[in-house]
Amino acid sequence: MSIVYKCRHCGQEIGKLDNQIVDTSTLGFNQLSVKEKEEMIQYRDDGDIHVQTICESCEETLGQHPQYHELDFFIQ
Length: 76
What we know:
Number of strands: 4
Number of domains: 1
Radius of gyration: 14 Å
Oligomer: single chain
Order of helices and strands: EEHEEH
Strand order of the largest sheet: 2-1-4-3
CATH class: Alpha Beta
Number of helices: 2
Distance between the termini: 31 Å
Helix content: 10-25%
Strand content: 25-35%
């Protein structure tokens, strides 16, 4: 089982915890609303957990171009 963090905008893998058994509250999942969990966390059939987040590059771009927040995807 792995926990994989990927940028929701560019798809870059930000981090990965391999073969870790971690309490999800340690990762802060318990701080998310039900809707946020549905949007951000995907449980795969192989036991992996994929978490959509944002990388530093995309966060910087959004800071420079706030109108991009209106778009589902700003990288093409």
